[in-house]
Design a protein that fits this description.
The protein is mostly helical and about 180 residues long. It has seven helices and three strands.
Length: about 180
Protein backbone atom coordinates (compact mmCIF):
# COMPACT_ATOMS: atom_id res chain seq x y z
CA UNK A 1 0.00 0.00 0.00
CA UNK A 2 1.71 3.23 1.09
CA UNK A 3 5.24 2.23 2.09
CA UNK A 4 6.78 5.15 0.20
CA UNK A 5 4.16 7.50 1.61
CA UNK A 6 4.97 6.38 5.14
CA UNK A 7 8.60 7.31 4.49
CA UNK A 8 7.48 10.73 3.29
CA UNK A 9 5.32 11.13 6.41
CA UNK A 10 8.30 10.35 8.65
CA UNK A 11 10.45 12.83 6.72
CA UNK A 12 7.66 15.41 6.99
CA UNK A 13 7.59 14.96 10.77
CA UNK A 14 11.36 15.49 10.92
CA UNK A 15 11.00 18.89 9.24
CA UNK A 16 7.73 20.02 10.85
CA UNK A 17 6.58 20.20 14.43
CA UNK A 18 3.62 17.81 14.50
CA UNK A 19 1.78 16.93 17.66
CA UNK A 20 1.71 13.21 18.53
CA UNK A 21 -1.86 12.58 17.29
CA UNK A 22 -1.17 14.52 14.09
CA UNK A 23 1.91 12.40 13.43
CA UNK A 24 0.10 9.13 14.16
CA UNK A 25 -2.79 10.09 11.91
CA UNK A 26 -0.49 11.20 9.09
CA UNK A 27 1.41 7.90 9.20
CA UNK A 28 -1.88 5.98 9.29
CA UNK A 29 -3.22 7.96 6.33
CA UNK A 30 0.01 7.36 4.42
CA UNK A 31 -0.10 3.65 5.25
CA UNK A 32 -3.64 3.17 3.96
CA UNK A 33 -3.30 5.36 0.83
CA UNK A 34 -1.91 3.94 -2.41
CA UNK A 35 1.55 5.04 -3.51
CA UNK A 36 0.49 5.03 -7.17
CA UNK A 37 -2.40 7.51 -6.79
CA UNK A 38 -1.66 11.06 -7.87
CA UNK A 39 -2.29 12.72 -5.50
CA UNK A 40 -2.42 10.01 -2.84
CA UNK A 41 -5.90 9.98 -1.29
CA UNK A 42 -7.22 9.00 2.11
CA UNK A 43 -10.94 8.38 2.59
CA UNK A 44 -11.36 6.01 5.53
CA UNK A 45 -14.10 6.37 8.14
CA UNK A 46 -13.93 8.46 11.30
CA UNK A 47 -13.67 5.23 13.29
CA UNK A 48 -10.66 4.13 11.22
CA UNK A 49 -9.02 7.54 11.69
CA UNK A 50 -9.61 7.29 15.45
CA UNK A 51 -7.98 3.84 15.38
CA UNK A 52 -5.05 5.45 13.55
CA UNK A 53 -4.39 7.73 16.51
CA UNK A 54 -4.74 4.87 18.97
CA UNK A 55 -8.37 5.11 20.05
CA UNK A 56 -10.74 2.17 19.96
CA UNK A 57 -14.19 3.56 19.21
CA UNK A 58 -17.12 1.54 20.54
CA UNK A 59 -19.95 0.72 18.16
CA UNK A 60 -22.97 2.99 18.10
CA UNK A 61 -24.86 1.97 21.28
CA UNK A 62 -28.53 1.05 21.40
CA UNK A 63 -30.79 3.31 23.42
CA UNK A 64 -31.48 0.47 25.88
CA UNK A 65 -27.75 -0.18 26.45
CA UNK A 66 -26.93 0.50 30.13
CA UNK A 67 -23.60 2.04 29.05
CA UNK A 68 -25.21 4.21 26.35
CA UNK A 69 -24.05 7.55 27.75
CA UNK A 70 -20.51 6.31 28.40
CA UNK A 71 -20.15 4.87 24.89
CA UNK A 72 -21.53 8.06 23.31
CA UNK A 73 -19.03 10.11 25.32
CA UNK A 74 -16.14 7.84 24.22
CA UNK A 75 -17.20 8.14 20.58
CA UNK A 76 -17.50 11.91 20.83
CA UNK A 77 -14.06 12.26 22.46
CA UNK A 78 -12.41 10.04 19.83
CA UNK A 79 -14.02 11.93 16.94
CA UNK A 80 -13.03 15.25 18.50
CA UNK A 81 -9.40 14.05 18.75
CA UNK A 82 -9.51 13.10 15.06
CA UNK A 83 -10.99 16.49 14.17
CA UNK A 84 -8.20 18.32 16.03
CA UNK A 85 -5.50 16.17 14.42
CA UNK A 86 -6.95 16.67 10.92
CA UNK A 87 -7.15 20.42 11.45
CA UNK A 88 -3.52 20.47 12.54
CA UNK A 89 -2.45 18.50 9.46
CA UNK A 90 -4.39 20.84 7.18
CA UNK A 91 -2.85 23.87 8.92
CA UNK A 92 0.71 22.65 8.27
CA UNK A 93 -0.24 21.61 4.73
CA UNK A 94 0.49 17.93 5.18
CA UNK A 95 -2.97 17.13 3.78
CA UNK A 96 -5.60 18.96 1.78
CA UNK A 97 -9.33 18.36 2.05
CA UNK A 98 -10.84 17.25 -1.25
CA UNK A 99 -14.36 16.52 -0.02
CA UNK A 100 -16.09 17.31 3.24
CA UNK A 101 -17.74 14.50 5.13
CA UNK A 102 -21.48 14.41 5.68
CA UNK A 103 -24.16 11.95 6.73
CA UNK A 104 -23.34 8.79 4.77
CA UNK A 105 -20.43 10.45 2.88
CA UNK A 106 -16.83 10.09 4.00
CA UNK A 107 -14.41 13.00 3.95
CA UNK A 108 -11.59 12.69 1.44
CA UNK A 109 -8.09 14.09 1.79
CA UNK A 110 -5.07 14.37 -0.50
CA UNK A 111 -1.70 13.73 1.11
CA UNK A 112 0.36 16.69 -0.12
CA UNK A 113 3.33 16.84 2.31
CA UNK A 114 3.83 20.44 1.19
CA UNK A 115 4.50 21.83 4.62
CA UNK A 116 5.06 25.43 5.51
CA UNK A 117 8.32 27.23 5.00
CA UNK A 118 9.79 29.05 7.96
CA UNK A 119 8.51 32.35 6.53
CA UNK A 120 5.05 30.83 6.03
CA UNK A 121 4.95 29.69 9.64
CA UNK A 122 5.97 33.12 10.88
CA UNK A 123 3.30 34.85 8.80
CA UNK A 124 0.68 32.35 9.98
CA UNK A 125 1.75 32.95 13.59
CA UNK A 126 1.37 36.69 13.03
CA UNK A 127 -2.14 36.18 11.60
CA UNK A 128 -3.37 33.74 14.22
CA UNK A 129 -1.29 34.94 17.15
CA UNK A 130 1.39 33.31 19.20
CA UNK A 131 -0.91 30.47 20.19
CA UNK A 132 -0.46 28.77 16.79
CA UNK A 133 1.20 25.36 17.18
CA UNK A 134 2.29 26.25 20.71
CA UNK A 135 3.02 23.20 22.77
CA UNK A 136 1.86 22.82 26.32
CA UNK A 137 5.35 21.91 27.42
CA UNK A 138 7.09 24.82 25.70
CA UNK A 139 8.45 26.39 28.87
CA UNK A 140 12.23 26.65 28.85
CA UNK A 141 13.96 24.17 31.10
CA UNK A 142 16.75 25.52 33.26
CA UNK A 143 19.50 23.15 34.18
CA UNK A 144 23.19 23.35 34.86
CA UNK A 145 25.81 21.13 33.36
CA UNK A 146 28.43 20.32 35.96
CA UNK A 147 31.98 21.21 35.08
CA UNK A 148 34.46 18.33 35.03
CA UNK A 149 35.91 19.45 38.40
CA UNK A 150 32.48 19.37 40.09
CA UNK A 151 31.40 16.01 38.73
CA UNK A 152 32.48 12.92 40.64
CA UNK A 153 31.82 9.37 39.61
CA UNK A 154 29.67 7.52 42.11
CA UNK A 155 31.84 5.08 44.00
CA UNK A 156 30.81 1.54 44.70
CA UNK A 157 30.89 0.59 48.39
CA UNK A 158 33.64 -1.78 49.37
CA UNK A 159 32.79 -5.30 50.45
CA UNK A 160 30.96 -5.37 53.76
CA UNK A 161 30.14 -1.67 53.61
CA UNK A 162 26.54 -0.58 53.03
CA UNK A 163 25.92 2.43 50.82
CA UNK A 164 23.81 5.23 52.38
CA UNK A 165 21.13 4.84 49.71
CA UNK A 166 20.60 1.19 50.55
CA UNK A 167 21.05 1.45 54.32
CA UNK A 168 17.40 2.00 55.17
CA UNK A 169 16.16 -1.36 54.01
CA UNK A 170 19.20 -3.60 54.45
CA UNK A 171 20.31 -2.81 57.98
CA UNK A 172 18.89 -4.79 60.87
CA UNK A 173 16.04 -3.10 62.67
CA UNK A 174 16.31 -2.47 66.38
CA UNK A 175 12.85 -2.96 67.88
CA UNK A 176 14.01 -3.00 71.51
CA UNK A 177 12.53 0.45 72.29
CA UNK A 178 9.16 -0.56 70.89
CA UNK A 179 9.00 -3.72 72.99
CA UNK A 180 9.74 -1.87 76.22
CA UNK A 181 7.02 0.70 75.63
CA UNK A 182 4.41 -1.91 74.78
Amino acid sequence: MGAQLVGRAIAFQANNDLKPNEYRLLVYMAHTAKDADQPPRYFASREASAFGIGRMVPDEPDLVDPRHDQKCAERKAAFQAVKVAVKGLVDVRAIKQLRAGAEGVRAEYALTFEGLSLEGRKSLQAEVGNSYRKRRDSKPVAFEIPTPQEYQEPQEPTRGEISPKRASHLQPVDNSDERKSA
